[in-house]
Amino acid sequence: xGEEDKVKNILSRAGLMSETAVLVYLGLAKFIxxxxxxxxxxxxxxxxxxxxxxxxxxFGFVDHPPFTPLVARFSKSxxxxxLLGLRVFPALAGAATVVLAGLIARKLGGGRFAQVLAGLAVxxxxxxxxxxxxxxxxxxDILFWTLAAYILIVILKDDRPRLWxxxxxxxxxxxxxxxxxxxxxxxxxxxxVLSPARKRLLGAWPWTGAGVALLVFFPNLVWQVRHGLPFxxxxxxxxxxxxxxxxxxxFLGSQVMEAAPPNFLIILAGLFFLLxxxxxxxxxxxxxxxxVLLALFxxxxxxxxxxxxxxxxxxxxxxxxxxxxxxKPGIRxxxxxxxxxxxxxxxxxxxxxxxxxxxxxxxxxSRFLGVAPVPAERQALGSLPQHYADxxxxxxxxxxxxRVYRDLxxxxxxxCAIFTQNYGEASAINFFGxxxxxxxxxxxxxxxxxxxxxxxxxxIIIIIVxxxxxxxxxxxxxxxxxxxxxxxxxxxxxxxxxxxxCRRPKLxxxxxxxxxxxxx
Length: 520
Fold this sequence. Notes:
Layout: H1 3-13, H2 19-37, H3 45-55, H4 67-79, H5 83-86, H6 88-107, H7 112-124, H8 126-131, H9 137-158, H10 164-175, H11 181-194, H12 204-226, H13 230-241, H14 248-259, H15 261-276, H16 284-299, H17 311-325, H18 329-332, H19 335-346, H20 359-369, H21 386-389, H22 394-407, H23 410-415, E1 416-419, H24 423-432, E2 441-442, H25 447-451, E3 460-465, E4 476-485, E5 497-505, H26 509-512
Parallel strand pairs: 1-2, 1-3
Antiparallel strand pairs: 3-5, 4-5
Helix pairs in contact: 2-6, 2-7, 3-4, 3-24, 6-7, 6-9, 6-17, 7-17, 7-19, 9-10, 10-12, 11-16, 14-15, 15-16, 15-17, 22-24
């Protein structure tokens, strides 16, 4: 026995070369990748909002359930105001998703090649890679969908109905993170009815699982009802006035870039296998669910990334398909080439999802490739895609407002309120401005409107806005533009913002407050 064989034998006996160990190594590699690069730019708009929501915890918020604000608060208790610390848990969620994708491939019947390919494909998926950079509910949404799919596969494939309550628990927690898993549940329901597994819904255990999910989700549901179901109003406004509605062809084409082109082919192979492979007949529901989800999001005006949480299970099925079609010895030798091609073809897209280069070099790189940012919302884009642009300009904004605030007479500072146009601006001032001695910022956007105008009288207000002084003449007799705020890489509508000092209000701020409500 050669030295190399002896080493392999020792590692094998220690369990360090087992299939599970290899999946853990892949998950660890993804986690380390995020630790190296996640802190390269700045705080994302939504991250600042979640931090502030975490400081004002409740059973619900206008635009999201409480799970991610709770994670933000826990992260702060562990890591303080560290940006990289804030992003540890999204990175861990991504690592866990990689491991789960490999386990799904194994449960479907895949060997080591299928498991490794599934995990690697998840790592290289553009949208998943980006979601694990930031502390938003999307990172955990993907993890919860994947975990739910894994438990369902075990239930259906191994005939273990007692796991339905465990599935219900995962779904309940997922609903406390983001409501979108309800679409997946609906799609899976249709898939189960269309598949031979429909008989599994007749027993008591599935309904027990549904009861567990409802019990976990119930506090947030009560909060929404007590506040007039604001999320429904917000979602309606978002579809009508914010999101860009894509044609079915455009939406399908967007999936190629969201998943990464080679991954899209793997997903198609997985869909084919789930729908037609004889050995996967008990799991047909997963294939039907993918098609139902696609139809739901296409015709409801959903964003392309809404499909991302279903990618891991489809990539696992696709990896199994590629393993099956390469089982012959002559073709089997090409498996390493598949891995190399996946990395080589998906690799150039990594900087668009993970902030690997400094921002100046990223802009040069994207221009070299001729790739222009594609908007998902009805907002103009600059040289950066929105998920990068919204990481710039926030601290500079707070410093500019602080300079204006410090220049006010002391009597004015005692009564001064800071009003902004959206939750990103308000959260930036509330996060960075506390170091500058600023009073809390208020605005009418989403949960900030519910929090109200604050304790200041509003006899003098600093308003951050990109409009003209005339826009505020209806509410204040004295409106003066004192400075402008700019940041090279911020979103265009967050650049060249005017800062106004407004005095002599025509109405008390509490009387005006109902008019500034923006649920969008």
